[in-house]
Amino acid sequence: MKILIAGDSTAANYKATLYPMMGWGQALEYFAKPDVEVLNFAMPGRSTKSFRAEGHWQRLLDNISQGDWIFIQFGHNDQKIEQEIGVQEDDFRNNLSRMYDEVRERGGNVLLLTGVLRCAYDRSGLLIETQGNYPQIIRETAEKFALPLVDAQSILREFEKRNGRMALQELYCYPSPPGNWVPPGALDTSHFSISGAHKVAQMIADDIKRQQLPMADLFY
Questions:
Q1: The whole model's pTM is what?
Q2: CATH number belonging to the domain at 2-218, selected among 3.40.50.1820, 3.40.50.670, 3.40.50.1110, 3.30.70.3270
Q3: Residue 131 in contact with residue 76, Cβ under 8 Å?
Q4: pLDDT digit string (tens) for 172-215?
Q5: Helix (H) or strand (E) segment spanning residue 73
Q6: Percent of the chain residues past pLDDT 70, beyond the cut
Q7: Which terminus of the chain is less hemmed in, N or C, by CB atoms within 10 Å?
């Protein structure tokens, strides 16, 4: 059995040159059972549009076997409609639906995830909502097709409520490595550290088990 991940930089694999940055998808294998293979196709800076246009989605489709689970998490880059990678809301909804159809045609199963929370605060110390309506579109798509959903955005928001700002901040990449979009030494408010990626991957696995979703038995 395989888990195949489609997503953006928050889920992606990173080389040692970008230490200590890690995506949750890179850490997920540590919470999956030994007979489960995790293939992470997530790529930094991709939206549902560019992930398909560059061939990453086709490569994922080509690796699906009957019964595999495909974890799909987009939105961070789709909402950048002023940029070439951006996707309008209606197109985002259609892109997710098309992905589901193509996975189903190949005998796979889909789990949708909302985009993870950015560690961004306003001057009054309140978390800033940076993804617009895109997480809600993911929720609505899951409801429309009766798909399992992990609401990663809400999970991290609840984590912050329980544990505070500093605990949330500690999940993210600090200090930012050279070559990253954030100046070296600063806090990267979008991407996780190694320990943060492991914690977020565990939160995702724990939520799957808490909900008793169909793929729950793939995790410890």
A1: 0.95
A2: 3.40.50.1110
A3: yes
A4: 998 888 878 788 888 888 999 999 999 999 999 999 999 999 99
A5: strand 69-73
A6: 100
A7: C
